[in-house]
Amino acid sequence: MGVRGLLVIRLSAMGDVAMTVPVLTAFCTKYPEVKITVLTRKFFKPMFDQIPNVSIFAADVNGKHKGLFGLWRLYKELKELDIDAVADLHNVLRSNVLKRFFGFSNIPFKQIDKGRAEKKALTSLKNKVFKNPLKSTHQRYVDVFDSLGFSLDLSKAEPMAKLPLPKKINDLIGESSKVKIGIAPFAAFQGKMYSLELMEEVIGELNKNNAYQLFLFGGGATEVEQLNQLEVKYTNGINCAGKFSFEDELALISNLDLMLSM
Q1: If we measure between CA atoms, which residue out of 82, 86, 9 comes closest to residue 40?
Q2: Stretch 179-204: mean pLDDT, rounded?
């Protein structure tokens, strides 16, 4: 279809944005001639710094891009980037409005099927509907690109390279040979969390045999305080929340042996 400029939309949340990274890595490996612009929040830009042919367009959803007129302004700004097609990996009200606007230019606009009905049936308290395993979010992203004519095989995606560690993180880690495990126990919605009480049991068990360094991640005053309490209680626990920039946290995560998140 001659696509040279592809817009990819994923504004939030952090975990869903992060899951675009291996998909875009696979895409850029297979289709290096396509320039990708990711429409997301400015805060998430460091996630994409290692991917070639990817640039970030920061959406100011609380400022100049707020509301219907703000989205029209956003559309006009995006149009100047020579967009040939749009992969909407979010499918929310904002992106649906943008879909209408891009329709004026007859630009192909494909959206993710989030499988809301299947998920609702599976998580219903009564009369659950059990089927084959539901598609992963990664696969749902892949399906959007496939609908635009770009087939992808995630099994061939290369992992991201380890990032150099800033001195302050090296000082924190020290020369320990312990297995490094990151734990991010919180989520934006409580229903998506493994309860903090049970997660503390996990941390306690890992702490017992003294073979692991446990790096705790979170954000906001409440989470920082809760993680501070865990750090004090467990000798191998290290609270990273509120101590480093997002870029530094990503560098640390890239050097861990295992990362556990919600």
Answers
A1: 9
A2: 93
